[in-house]
Amino acid sequence: MSAVMVVHGGAWAIPDELASASVSGVKTAACEGFSVMKKGGSALDAVEAAVRSLEDNSVFNAGHGAVLNSEGEVELDAIIMDGKTLGSGAVSSVKNIANPVSLARAVMEKTNHMILTSRGANLFADSIDVSTVPTEKLVSEFERTEWEKHKNYATGVKEDFNAKWAHDTVGAVAVDFDGNVACATSTGGIRNKMVGRVGDSSIIGCGGYADNFSGAVSCTGHGESILKVTLARLIMSYMEQGKAVAEASELALQYMGDRVHGAGGAIVVSPSGQWAATFTTERMAWAAAENDTLWSGLNPQEKFQTPLNEWNL
Ligand code: GLY
Predict the structure, then answer these.
(1) Residue 188 Cα, ligand 1 centroid: separation in angstroms?
(2) Alpha-carbon distances, residue 63 vs 25, 52, 53, 188, 255 (angstroms)
(3) How far, in Å, is the centroid of ligand 1 from the Cα of 224?
(4) Looking at residue 196, which CATH number applies to its domain?
(5) What domain range includes position 282?
(6) Which residue from 76, 165, 167, 169 has its CB within 8 A of the most atoms of ligand 1, so it is best to mutate?
(7) Per residue in 229-256, pLDDT tens?
């Protein structure tokens, strides 16, 4: 059985000035996650490593580079899910944490709960010695400038995720050499969101889902729309009805567009290693590593191929 790693850097109208850094960031993250599995790590280890790489890269809206809420604060959401056990852990509205995906994994592995939010999640982080970082360290220059320009959230939301102001989410899905699948998703949410607003990313079945019997999904896009249609589970249910991964994603995204006028994207992997990266926004940076090949894309229908060699592993 071959392993596959797929990552995304968020579905939105990525401006040209961020295009090349976004593609380079997802390629690096896919290689890092794939390398974890080549060295014997699980799909769960791989999605955590890939999402940490994206959270550490300030071109993306997660960890460093996260968007600011209406008070100019960073509030982060993340989920991780293990398709072998259906165990999952999530955090929402956490502050000053550089890698929320690892805190989500700790919620899964070290508590009896599935989601911790806000102060409770930060208290838990303190209790397991996860260090905090000052907000200034998480905020990119790009975000500070954009936040100053677009302080009106209501106007922005009406324009949907094809608007240039939106900036969305990172995620990873993987199947490992033992056939186990996993997903992880992490985000700063939507710029100028209300304090305490939680989107889809930390909600099981919405921002992500993983089940060894069906596959793994990580979603991106307008959180309130994704929540209304439970996008990750909708994609899985199409797969469970026998649809191929690309068709399942396209049908679910189409439904979200028709039913609630929401735009977004998804990456999907099946237990047998079929994968897809699909979006209804203008662009989504994505990359996939399998066998000896690194695939990547940004614009609709784009699929570039480069050798996955010792250097990028
Ligand atoms: N998709 C991320 C969010 O809406 O929060």
Answers:
(1) 8
(2) 14, 8, 10, 7, 30
(3) 7
(4) 3.60.20.30
(5) 4-311
(6) 169
(7) 999 999 999 999 999 999 999 999 999 9
